[in-house]
Amino acid sequence: MEVVATIVGKLWDCSFDATCRQFRYLCGYKDSIERLRIKAEKLEHTRERVQGKIDEATANGEIILSDVTNWIQRVDGITKEAEHFREEEDKANKRCLKGLCINPWSRYRFGKEAERKIEAISNLQKERSGFEIVSRQAPPRRNLLIPSSALSIIPSSALSINFQSRELITKQIMEMLKDENVSIIGICGMGGVGKTTLANEISKQAFEKKLFDFVVMVAVSQTQNYVNIQRVIAKRLGFKLPDDDESARAHFLLQRIKEKLKIEQEPKPKPEPEPEPEVRILIILDDVWEGIELGRVGIPFASKGCKIVLTSRIEDVCCEMNAKIFKVGTLPKEESWRLFRDVAGGIVDNPDINPIAREPDLFPNTLVTVAGALKAKDNKYVWIDAKQQLKKSAPTNIRGMDRKVFASLKLSYDFLENKEQQSVFLLCCLFPEDFDIPIKLLMRYGMGLRLFQEVDTVDEARCRTHTVVSSLISCFLLITGKNEKHVKMYDIVRDFAIKLSKDEYMFMAKAGLGLRAWPSADTSGNLTRISIMYNDIHEVPDHGLEYPKLQALLLQQNPSLVVSNDFFQGMEDLKVLEMSGIRKLQLPQSLVLLANLTTLHLDDCVFGDNADISFIGWLTNLEILSLNHTDIAEIPGNFGQLVKLKMFNLKGCSSITQIPQAVISCLKKLEDLHVSIRRGFGLVIELQVLS
């Protein structure tokens, strides 16, 4: 009897517990949903912290642990489920407001589902505590080809043509790479002759023929950023540089490369006594403008197993570095014609056009841009006019650029279909050399500057920008960047754009030059665009800065920049202001003077505890406001005055706990709101007002 009683008692307890649980699903579902909201919010915070570690590890070339990747995927899955669940429950509440209250079965279902998701989230949080390390070092891969980040503007169809003149010089360089008495090879020639294309071919053949175990290609550009060169080489050879000064990093890099050469040259035990092939490293330094101190970088000079190829527009640079020089010139006439015809198409076979088309003597890259500009023109007078323009274009003082190059690029620019394409093209030269330009920034800047005709909404601006960019790529004035969301400018095209924009449109493009002080400009009063992004400027001049015609000011990624209170006086026409990535940013009071400002970017800024960002609320013409990944703790109530706002970005603002109810409801024109939705559970009802 006692055994029976015990069994009955346990069954009763289980039955009672189950009944209580079912009852709680039914009557306490509101409490369950609130607990789910809090749990989901905390999980999102945890995910953001883990993602930060993942991003840092990825940037350092490390391999993310599979457990971590799997955890992230499951977190994203439960997060989406929680969002969908919340939307479903919210719809049920709305029906209740219309007189169709949630029936007991729905309450029970919502409560049970909420508890199930709470348990799943709790388990994920427990799993997170089990891995403090998210990655491991990636082993360097042998026979590793690293393509250049500076891509050629010559299309793949053109590259498929076998140019005998280029094959000859390629063969000579490949033979020289086998010569143990030659450490440095220099490829020199005017801008536009195809030096980078040739360097890419060298790296490709060196990889395919297994002449080297590691091939690293680095774009150097006019501003020799030794830190960046060190970082790229180290990353692509499979190790991380310490956060020391330049000389310490150079020593570390030098020792690691020598260590790699020494250790990996040691023969490994084998059944047969065959010596292990030497490990060899090829470093290609593309677009070098001044002699590079290899020791300052940390590249072993004249070390067995390490060779260097550099490309430059300036022969003296190659001589200074004691390089074995190979000069690259224009293509022979027949090869030039084959390239031109391949891009322009069959239109050049027209008997009226053919004699005209054969006449220009241009460099390979500019042949492509001219052919791209004229490929759809079947009127012979258009071709005659183009030929005359090429002849009349004045010589330029751009270092390393032939007048024919400038003339051909100017022709391609003039033949663009409309002002929109020309304006977006010139906008691209405001970014640093060899920079992956986000198309979304071109859209936001272009929208703020009113570059697009008959465009009223964010979606329309987005579509128009992609259309314009696509046209510029098809004309070979832009190239695709690291993915479909980015574009790049070939260095010689950027040089042309900077020259043209400075002379004709009063741009000042000083991006990524390592500047430590505000640049001087004789024509400061007439400037319309200023870009000093990605420098190390610490302060602005105390006086003498008045830019009454300035419409775009791009200051992002000057981390230590301090802006004086009266800085924006005299900039009343400013429409686009970009100040992202500034630490300890104190918004100046003169910001309120920018009555015409339409686009304001303050992403990744650190404002500090006592920062006052309420000045932004007085910029009533703002249409785009981006505060992604800032440390702001609350949204000022006067942001409700931004009634023209169309895009509002608050992603990654983990300190924000709420947005005043009146703010979002006032933004009747808001189309794009980017906010971490777990932070936004309280916004759902309010956002319905905007829909």
From TrEMBL:
The protein's UniProt keywords, in alphabetical order, are: ATP-binding, Coiled coil, Leucine-rich repeat, Nucleotide-binding, Plant defense, Repeat
What range(s) does the NB-ARC domain occupy?
A: 171-344
Q: Which InterPro entries match?
A: Apaf_helical (IPR042197), LRR_dom_sf (IPR032675), NB-ARC (IPR002182), P-loop_NTPase (IPR027417), Plant_NBS-LRR (IPR050905), WH-like_DNA-bd_sf (IPR036388)
Query: What's a Pfam family this protein contains?
Result: NB-ARC
* GO BP: defense response
> GO terms for molecular function, please?
ADP binding; ATP binding
By sequence similarity, the record places it as follows:
Belongs to the disease resistance NB-LRR family.
Q: What protein name applies here?
A: NB-ARC domain-containing protein
Please report the organism this UniProt entry assigns to the protein: Acer yangbiense
